[in-house]
Every structure is written in C-alpha cells, then in structure tokens.
Amino acid sequence: MPSIKIRPNESFDVGLRKFKRACEKAGIIPEVRKREFYEKPTSVLKRKKAAAVKREQKNQRKNRLGRPPRF
Questions:
Q1: Is the pTM of this model over 0.70?
Q2: DSSP assignment letter at 35
Q3: Rounded mean pLDDT for each run of 10 residues along the chain, 71 residues in total
Q4: How much is the pLDDT for 2?
Q5: Whether 14 contacts 6, CB under 8 Å
Q6: Of residues 44, 48, 2, the one with CA closest to residue 23
Q7: Cα separations in angstroms, 31 against 5, 28, 34, 51, 57
Q8: In angstroms, rounded to a whole number, what is the distance separating the alpha carbons of residues 55 and 60?
Q9: Phi, psi (5° rounding) for residue 64?
Q10: What is residue 1's predicted lDDT score, i.e. its pLDDT?
Q11: In this structure, are residues 51 and 40 in contact, taking their beta carbons and an 8 Å threshold?
C-alpha cells in the first residue's frame, strides 16, 4: 500500500492527487479491476492461452521474410 507524506501547508486535494499517482505507479488500480469479480481457473487459462497465441502470431508476422505485411 503506497503511503505519502503531506506537508502542513498542503491541502487535502494535493495529497489525494499524490496518493492516486502513487497507486498508479504501484499498479494497484489495474489489479483491483482484474480481481473485482471471480474468474474461474479455466477462464484464466483460456485467456492466457489466447494471449500467448496472439503474441506468437505477432512475432511470426514481425519475423516473416519476404514482402513486408500490408495494413
């Protein structure tokens, strides 16, 4: 959990902004959104496998010899 120090002359809003920035840097917000709802283990594996396939296809397109890909 990120912690911040607020100086005596700083307002609450400044402290809140600092805290939000620290949370973003620590990656807490995406983690909370990811864990907001339960995801079945099979769904997790399916999602990870799909991401791996997509990554591999991207690498193959990038490393393909011959004519460059048209977009």
A1: no
A2: T
A3: 88 93 92 93 97 94 72 72
A4: 85
A5: yes
A6: 2
A7: 24, 5, 5, 18, 27
A8: 9
A9: -65, 135
A10: 78
A11: no
